[in-house]
Amino acid sequence: MNPNQRTLIALNRGLPDRVPLFSCTEAQNQVYEILAERGGAVPLSFVQQGLVGLLLRRAAPLVNALGVFDRVFESFLAKKVESDIALGYDCTWVMFSAIFNLRSNRHATDIYGRLYDLVADADGNMDTPMYREGLLTTPEKWNAWSHPDPDRFHQKLERSFTQLQRRYGERIYMLGSVCWGLWENATQSMGLPAFSVALRRDPAFVRRMVQTYERIYLAAVHAAADAGLPGFVYSDDMGHKTGPQTSPRVFAEFFAPSFCRIVEQAHARGLKIIIHSCGNVNMLLDIFAGCGFDGIHSLDPTAGMDLAEVKQRVGDRMCVFGNLDISHVMSEGTREEVEAAVIAALRAAAADGGFVMAMTNSHNAVRVENSRWMVEFTHRHGTYPLALE
């Protein structure tokens, strides 16, 4: 089987020839190490010091108008896909991240109304901008914000996704995605305290806000379909370490109807769609499955997500992705620990199909060597019928 066939069978909860591997890697240091391209990453000092730093501090609007930052993100996305193919993944998360506007050489905003710090990874290279606060702290500020036009957003994403599909689509199963999901957009653009106040005082405004983000997100889904991508990742971090960030009732009442419409539209366009959420989302699993998502990721064990339990609860309705720990196993673990984690995941969720091996997330501390071991051991132990010791 080729990667596209293998992934599709797993997403349909069937038995492919072996367990597919999914990449969510987005860290510069790992991508360029895999491709053996030294010097490919952009040092944070490059954009904060010297002539470039001075230019960004004084002429950030011009840089934004020229689309320089966007091209950097889109170019890196292609490198990410190349590195996933080189490492041996079957499917990959193609996250469109060209949503930022520089405010200076130290800060950025995004199209949704967040403020970010420009930060470095452990190697001093520019990392994904770090969320600082929401700028739209009242309904009045939210109403005054220039929200993305869905049609223009669609055009931008379709162009980017089409290029990727034409170049790499026969070699790897690509699931398109976009920053960020409805919950993150609603809570982070306002800030969680302000959102909570609005939820209490003006639920009609919250519903209108969520519906606006739904229309923007649907533009991304249709862009992926128009570009010929086979799948999509609905990415929306809704959990923290011990449970959902708000009550399941709020998710069910204010967000689930939009989730279901996003899934419906994706399926109508022939896309498979999985949901990604960090944190403990045990209390939300039935909502996700009820909306018809084809798969679920990341199921972080450090947040109390038990892979076997998730498989038992929703494995007849969703393909399960996961759930190798990035806090130790994939960043500090020995070869033996990686092999043990792979075997444990296979035992927990892979026996009857409908399983895709994956790390829980992307982080610049993950070692490429450990990722290679994950691929190696999944190939070795994940061939069907499974014969685990």
User: How would the global form be characterised?
Assistant: globular
Q: Secondary-structure element order, as H and E?
A: HEHHHHEEEEEHHEHHHEHEHEHEHEH
Radius of gyration from CA coordinates: 20 Å
Average pLDDT taken over every residue = 95
Structural class: alpha/beta
Helicity level:
40-55%
Uncertain runs with pLDDT below 50, 5 residues or more? none
Report the biggest beta sheet as strand number plus sense, adding barrel if it closes.
8 strands, parallel, barrel
Number of helices: 15
Widest β-sheet, arrangement of strands: 1-2-7-8-9-10-11-12
Content of β-strand: 5-15%
Top-tier CATH class: Alpha Beta
CATH architecture: Alpha-Beta Barrel
What does this structure look like?
There is one protein chain. With 389 residues, this protein is of the alpha/beta class. It has one domain (3-380): TIM Barrel (Alpha-Beta Barrel), CATH 3.20.20. It has 15 helices and twelve strands. A hairpin with a 4-residue loop joins strand 3 (100-102) and strand 4. Helix 9 (192-201) crosses helix 10 (203-226), helix 10 runs parallel beside helix 11 (248-268) and helix 14 crosses helix 15. The longest helix is centred in the middle third of the chain and has 24 residues, at 203-226. The relative contact order is 0.13. The model has no long low-confidence stretch (mean pLDDT 95).
